[in-house]
Amino acid sequence: MTVHRKAVALAAAVAAAAIALSGCSSDTGSPAADALDGSQLLTIPREDMGTFDRNFNPFANPDFPMTQQAIYESMLIYNPADGSTTPWLATEWEVAADSSGITFTLRDDVTWSDGEPLVADDVVISFDLQREVRGGFDYLEQVSAVDEHTVQFDFSEPFSPALLDIGQQTIVPAHVWRDVEDPTTFANEEPVGSGPYTEVTNFQAQSFDLGKNPNYWQPDKQRIEGIRMLAFSGNDGANLAAANGDVDWAPQFIPNIDQAYVAKDADNRFFWFPPTGSMINWQFNTTKAPFDDPNVRKALSMAVDREQVTAVGMQGYTEPADCTGLSGSYDSWRDEDLAGSCSWTERDLETAGELLDAAGITLGADGKRVLPDGSPFAFDYSVGSTSSDWVSVGNVISQNLAELGVTVTVAAKDWGDVVAGYENGTFDSGIVWSANAPTPYQYYRGVMSTETVKPVGEQTFDNYHRYGSEEADALLARFAQAPDEEAQHAVVDDLQALFAEEAPVAPLFPGPEWGAASNARFTGWPTEGDPYATLSTRSRTTVLVLTTLEPVVTD
To answer: CB count, 10 Å around CB of 217?
Structure first.
């Protein structure tokens, strides 16, 4: 039995191109004799990284491709596509009746890729490292190993959303990481993980390959030989690779996808973009006037034509947001009466102008608005230049705001520069993703809690817009202590009302979970009819896909 000849040719071409682009360097992860056959590799583009730097540190560099999807795993996996929870490194858990703690029982048959067994100490050190490097888990008082396969989490106060928060934390081996001097700078070039594909068999600036974990705890599910990641400095290059059949999985924005991708091999290609991703917001730096005025934020939001934003900027792949701020994954939590009655996410230039006038931001003789001090009301919309969809969204917003007399400049730069501006609080405004946890708690905490606000100049990974409300804090505390889902829903109704009143950010649209794939070389993909995972390669559910796919072979 052999793999399709076309697949072999395509894989060879991609591999050759990757090596050529990288200057024919020999930065390989293992001896050449161990290099994988490219025709057997699941090939995936990464559209927002022009080059790869070899850093598989899941704490300091958590967004690096496949680090948290193929190399490292968590105790459980939550699937936003169908709302299911799958035990993974843990077999079971017990939540304290008063939500003051959780006990996890680990599998006793898991070994790390170097052959060492997974034990409770691995979980303990993973949480220590996460809190040291990234912060979070403020409610944890203690994490302790009860025995080799039991971990106890004690909380400083009741915290009902903790299960999926704790359960999805990346777990690393203590016997490796306890000797790391500085976990914030450790590149982890030869990772030891528990996932299905851990072996770095080749690493170039434009591509890298991951081979099978030789000690994976589910060897019967390692049906594909490995993974090849390709670097692209934007959607256009990644989309061309997808159109040409050079990749198997295309988890990025593809304009006119039916014609540009599917029609080129309609028997095998498909896409699925469920609106269950995080809410995509237009955020304003509230440390800068006049963005500290909620009526100004509402006015700017009311100037945006979200129908045009979603139809033109997002190619009709999503839908306009409402002023609850909730994405499609939270439909069961949405207060439909509030969503239908609140108006600041609907376009209304007349009311928007009245709000700006009341704030002293008036029209000058040239039709441009000026601030109370007489300076122009002009500011930047920050966006990564590689995200062609979000750049298009910015162009629509700029055109919309010009009709209100406000000058918005689309400042498309390298994503690293954009994010640095967000984290340090030096930006004016910009497009941004949001938390997308199983409940709305993390979303509202990230956009409204004073606990997530950092001073300008101090790095933050949440609440870039730096808005905080003590009323939100009190509601979030009530949610954390709520005894059941009915009580949680009541609190979320109040959080939605507060969000609608304060407009901490301007929600634009729920982010689609981008996913397109081909059955030409691999089958078993998740679909709308079989949503066992999402088609996003940045989701925790990616490991479910990697352990389900099967290669297509012919006699």
So the answer is: 19
Nearest Cα to 125, choosing from 179, 185, 165? 179
Q: Which of 316, 257, 313, 259 is nearest to 516 (CA)?
A: 257
Determine the Cα–Cα distance for residues 293 and 455; give it in Å rounded to an integer.
18
Q: How many CB atoms lie within 10 A of CB 447?
A: 29
SS3 (DSSP) at 203: strand
* Residue in the block written with tokens 């990234």: 134
Question: Is 523:549 a contact under the CB 8 Å cutoff?
Answer: yes
Label the pairing between strands 207-212 and 226-233: antiparallel
Residue of 553, 551, 555, 554 whose CA lies nearest to 523: 551
The reported pTM is 0.83
- Give yes or no for a contact between 516 and 257, defined as CB atoms under 8 angstroms apart: yes
Instruction: Identify the bridge partners of residue 397 per DSSP, sorted by sequence position.
Output: none
State the CB neighbour count (10 A cutoff) for residue 146.
Answer: 12
Torsion sign across C-alpha atoms 481, 139, 460, 440: negative
Distances (CA, A) of 481 to 87, 94, 126, 538, 540: 25, 17, 26, 31, 27
Find out whether 392 and 253 touch, Cβ atoms under 8 Å.
no
Low-confidence ranges of the chain (pLDDT < 50): 1-33
The Cα–Cα gap between 291 and 289 comes to: 5
Q: What angle do CA 177, 51, 26 make, to 5 degrees?
A: 75
Structure tokens belonging to residue 485: 């889902």
Q: Taking Cα atoms as reference points, which of 553, 554, 534, 555 lies closest to residue 545?
A: 534
* Tokens encoding 165: 């928060």
pLDDT of residue 437: 84
Between vectors from CA 78 to CA 74 and to CA 82, what angle results, nearest 5°? 155
Which secondary structure element, helix H or strand E, spans residue 169, and what is its range? none
From the list 233, 194, 241, the residue with the least C-alpha distance to 14 is: 241
Biggest alpha carbon–alpha carbon distance for the chain: 77
What's the sign of the alpha-carbon dihedral 144, 56, 49, 539?
A: negative
Close Cβ partners of 485 (under 8 Å, ≥ 6 residues apart): none
Q: What pLDDT, on the 0 to 100 scale, is given for residue 446?
A: 95
Q: Is 109 left (phi over 0), alpha (psi -120 to 50) or beta?
A: alpha
DSSP E strand stretches across 320-425: 362-363, 369-370, 378-384, 407-413
Name residues whose C-beta falls within 8 Å of residue 254's C-beta, 6 or more positions apart in sequence: 235, 239, 242, 260, 261, 271, 516
Q: Which long-range contacts (CB under 8 A, 24 or more apart) does 127-132 make?
A: 127/166, 127/169, 129/59, 129/172, 129/177, 129/183, 130/59, 130/169, 130/170, 132/59, 132/183, 132/184
The predicted pLDDT at position 436 comes to 84
Q: Are 522 and 549 in contact (CB under 8 A)?
A: yes
**Token representation of residue 115:** 């052959």
Looking at residue 286, the DSSP 8-state letter turns out to be: T
